[in-house]
Amino acid sequence: MRILISGASVAGPVLAYWLSRYGFAVTVVERAPAPRKAGGHAVDLFRPAMEISAKMGVLARIEERATGTDRLAMYREGSTRATEIDLTKVYGATSDRHVVIMRDDLSEIYYAAGRDDVEYLFDDSITSIDIDGDVTFEHAPARAFEVVVGADGLHSNVRRLTFGEEGELTRFLGGYLAVLSVPKALADAGRMIGHVGVGRLAALHTAAHLDDARAAFLFRSTAELDSGHRDPRRQKQILHDMFVGMHSEVDRWLDELEATPAFYFDAITQLRLDRWSRRRVTLVGDAGYCPGPAVGGSTSLAVLGAYVLAGELARAGGDHLRAFAGYELAMREPVLRSRAFARGVAKSIIPGSPAGTWALTRGAQLVSRMPAPLSRALAKLNTKGLRLFDSMQVPDYPEADV
Ligand SMILES: Cc1cc2nc3c(=O)[nH]c(=O)nc-3n(C[C@H](O)[C@H](O)[C@H](O)COP(=O)(O)OP(=O)(O)OC[C@H]3O[C@@H](n4cnc5c(N)ncnc54)[C@H](O)[C@@H]3O)c2cc1C
Q: From which residue to which does the signal peptide run (predicted)?
């Protein structure tokens, strides 16, 4: 059975790895000209994604590449003294097994795990998918596949070709997110610096193995802005106006806006699709069920979804309709819970009032001062909240064809 996957970031390579282990013939098409190299932004892997990575034999590599940011110095706007937060305690409260890693490091590790058994087409994109699985590309000749999977992110091409324009399918969570690359000398490896005020949050971090540092900005907005989806000049202006004057350190990060080699800016939106499959096509990871970038643990959801989809296809012996039904059933609950969680995080991580600013800093400080078993015990009382990702189950599937 021939399966085409669009997207080679996180969900795509994990899915490709498992499908090829189960004996399927897998092709991955990726718009970027080459596999991703260290960079992007920092993402979280919680227990289910760590377990799946262990099954893939890449856990040690992932842990070796972790960013190692274990302290946070958080300044409330207007105050000159930072609140010191022990992030290992905060992460320990949310998960028994958790790692922060740069998205592109993670992508490279998953890609390397499966690349010998998978056909990768870089610098290309799907232009059409017909009802029988005939696919045309921008560059490669047309080919036929039994199954096509969109693993091409929040603004998925496969989703647009199959389900229509995304405006109908998304919900704005009331904020924006931006990341830019800045000189490494501005940051300390191991220690993140954060500044939080009413309606805005900025943070800087790096890792020993990176050549640069990453400044991330989140801000509230009651309505979607006319930020021009592909107009970085306008987006940089909005970001500058939103944060200038917050603190001299933040102003220094903003000075890099013109020269930065990497800039990301997007609304924090949530996908609201209830079904992810149609005929021969299905969606995985952010393409199908992004709960909101940076607010909903979507990387762990993408890894879990990719593993489950491959397992259901193997269990159904390649009967894709049966497999898609099993996949949607298994992922429904984790997706719904992640959406609810992300809506809550989007509200609290960018405080809307001085009291919210205080509560965010003070809450993190309290957890970081508690003995680890106590903070973990408190967090465990609520699997809908802090321990959401650890409470997701990783199903067992037939032994892979080794
Ligand atoms: C700024 C930012 C911060 C984030 N922080 C966190 C965090 O702290 N914790 C967390 O868990 N998650 C975080 N996320 C989310 C996380 O990055 C995603 O959930 C995760 O990368 C999803 O993986 P994916 O493979 O589904 O999609 P993506 O990583 O978005 O990958 C999609 C892939 O598809 C490719 N592609 C796109 N269009 C096409 C096309 N037409 N043809 C072929 N290929 C195409 C892209 O080049 C890319 O390689 C953050 C996201 C952003 C943007």
A: none
Q: Which residue is it, tokens 């970027």?
A: 32
Q: Where are the beta strands (DSSP E) in 20-87?
A: 25-30, 42-45, 71-76, 83-86
In-domain check, residue 214: no
According to DSSP, the residues that pair with 136 across neighbouring strands are 128
pLDDT band at 367 (very low <50, low <70, confident <90, very high): low
pTM score above 0.85: yes
Assigned domain for 12 exists: yes
Pocket test for ligand 1, best of 4, 6, 9, 235 (most atoms within 8 A of CB): 9
Number of domains forming the structure of the chain: 1
Instruction: Say which amino acid occupies 58.
Output: V
202 part of a folded domain: no
Contacts of 240 (CB under 8 A, 6+ apart): 254, 257
Q: How far is the CA of 40 from the centre of ligand 1 (A)?
A: 9
Kindly indicate the confidence band of residue 251, based on its pLDDT and cuts at 50, 70 and 90.
very high
Query: Is residue 339 included in any domain, yes or no?
Result: yes
Distance CA 145, CA 129 (A): 9
Residue 298, domain CATH: 3.50.50.60
Q: What's the CA-to-centroid distance between 278 and ligand 1, angstroms?
A: 22
Residue 219 in contact with residue 351, Cβ under 8 Å? no
Q: Domain of 34?
A: 2-66+103-169+270-349
pLDDT (average), residues 312-334 = 96
| pLDDT greater than 80 at residue 355 | yes
